[in-house]
Amino acid sequence: MTKSNFEQFNDVNVEFFEKAKLSLLDPLGLYLANDVKWIKLNENWNSLKFPVVIGGKGQPILLLHGFDSSFLEFRRIYQSLKRNFQVIIPDLLGFGFSPRCATNEYNPSKIISYLVDLLKILQITNNLKIIGASMGGSAALKLAFEISDSIDKIILLSPAGLFGEPKRIPFPLNQIGASFLGLPQVRKSLCRQAFAFPDECVGEMEEQIASIHLGCDGWRNSLASFAKSGGFAGTHKYIQNIPIKALCGENDRILGKKEIENIRKIENLNFVGLQNCGHLPHIDLPSLSSKIIQDYFLG
């Protein structure tokens, strides 16, 4: 594929995002989407542009979303955080609205390489704070291990992938699984499962944001490639002497009670259990989560 072909695919991706943005029902999602900047990376990524939310002034915070999600996941805490920090929210490589022609492989190693290159382009070399949600928690730990001299503090929100070994899903099961995850009823069910009280908290706005990025060209193939790699696993071994706090919902039905208890037992981890909260503290309890984040990062 020639460079012009890559640029054409990237333009298609940008056009899809602009249309998707205009369709957003959640005003907080639209507010967040309006701060997207398209950051051009080097030849390692075919000189393509990647969507990155950048807003606010102050010390930098990097927010990393979960599996098969997007930057929109942080819509309920973004406005609060940008009052005191420079907030940076990329779509992880192969997820969200990121261009799917940047590489032929989508795996944890590539995701970390992408984040390292992004931080170089943004000239962020020290005092970086990271928030990682669900799978983004594992990404945060691996990234911090790679660039430890640049990291100040970390907050993990219901981190996933801290234990176990990678479970590689071979072809064609990886493609079948990705197609299954694209089914409307499956998306709706997964969205509801993430909330502590879905009957009261999940409506059309939440379901739209959970699925809006599926229209990106190459969504299924990048997801299948990531599944084939085995994804993030066993990342608690990357925990070092960087201050870390973990927020977990006591009603988390995705991680489950056993996983949360294992997280609670990790040494050098400042664990906080949140009542009436599911898998997404920043969505279920945004005001409380934002206060804990700011108190910890500014303290």
Automatic annotation (TrEMBL):
<dbReference type="Pfam" id="PF00561">
    <property type="entry name" value="Abhydrolase_1"/>
</dbReference>
<feature type="domain" description="AB hydrolase-1">
    <location>
        <begin position="60"/>
        <end position="185"/>
    </location>
</feature>
<dbReference type="GO" id="GO:0016787">
    <property type="term" value="F:hydrolase activity"/>
</dbReference>
<dbReference type="InterPro" id="IPR000073">
    <property type="entry name" value="AB_hydrolase_1"/>
</dbReference>
<protein>
    <submittedName>
        <fullName>Putative alpha/beta hydrolase</fullName>
    </submittedName>
</protein>
<dbReference type="InterPro" id="IPR029058">
    <property type="entry name" value="AB_hydrolase_fold"/>
</dbReference>
<keyword id="KW-0378">Hydrolase</keyword>
